[in-house]
Fold:
Amino acid sequence: MQRRYLVKKAGTLLVAFGLFFSLSVFPEPISSEPSDNDIDSQISSTRNQLAGLKDKQAELQLELERTRADKNATLESKQLIEQQIHSMNNEISALNEYISSLGDNVSEMESEISRLEEDYAANYEKYKARVRAMYERGEVSYLEVILSSKSFSEIFNRIQYTSAVVAYDQRLMSELTGAIEKIRQNKADIETSISESEDAVHELQSVKNQQQEKQNELEAEISQLSEDEAELLRKEAEFDRAEYEYMSTINSLLDKKKVYSGEGFIWPLPGYSYVSSPFGYRRLFFNGHDYSGMHYAIDIPAPAGTPIVASSDGVVVLAGWVTTGGGLKIAIDHGSSISTNYNHLSSIAVYVGQSVKKGDVIGYVGMTGTASGNHLDFKIIRNGEALDPQLYVTPDNSPAEKSLS
Ligand SMILES: [Zn+2]
Structure:
């Protein structure tokens, strides 16, 4: 089943890479003196390419998730088998110890048997001698006993003595025979146990060998899946680079167009006027880190999910996760080299390349990235320089100290 999946997966990978290579990754060159129409068509074609790339990124992401899930499942199966092998090893060594202790018992019994057999042989010799002494003379030999005795009590004692000794010998012999027989029986039982235990060990060994083969197969699958994963991650990095290229192309095309049409900028978070951290140097510690330094934005606290609006007309040039601390971030290009940034969002309602109007909802307040609470981090940038937003926008959108338009 795993093998079939790998084959199927390899097919999917080929399809994914094929699509990737057939896609033209790098943006078309921009002509030096383009008309606005040319620029528009270039922007639109770059956006289409970017949209195509986004689809491939999503497919790749799914493939990566599938590969990882499969790898995790395979790792779990491998761990399970390792546990089984471990407990079989324990069982095998317990059985081997048991077999060895039974072997010790058997040796003890064997020496006990030879001791008893020697005992038996010695007693048997004595017994035979005594019986021979008694019966060589026949039944009448009692007369000799009588005649050679000096008194009746002596006769009586001799007869009694003789028969008591013989009886004793017989009883001893029969006890010895019984004891030997009993030990032999015990020994046979123990030998049966040994051979049963040995069979069990062999059975366990063969199951264990099968499990070890399975373990090796799983290890091979895991390393194959790890290679697939690494390959997908490499593609992902290529896609990310291509995405960045498309975005820069769109940005530079927009710069050429000077499309700014907004009439001033508005407060990006209607209904929330309190600024918890203004533009400028600040001392800031949280989570054990020192974030002190220039704050090139204003922080406007609001509950998670509060709608954020575009501060002015423009085109979305970034909408997604950034690793620089902003979390989920939106950047809007307003033309005239002015852009606004919106950081730490809980979710995003626009896509890259989308035209937005002043006041359109573009996303929602959150605390993604480096943030200690729900707030909007709002930034205005002109010609690459961050401006103090509070000089240009006011919470009630009344005229501000300075104007951007
Ligand atoms: Zn901030």
Confidence is low (pLDDT under 50) at residues 1-28. The first helix runs from residue 2 to 22. The CA atoms of residues 91 and 204 lie 8 Å apart. The pocket of zinc ion is lined by residues 277, 295, 297, 299, 377 (CB under 6 Å).
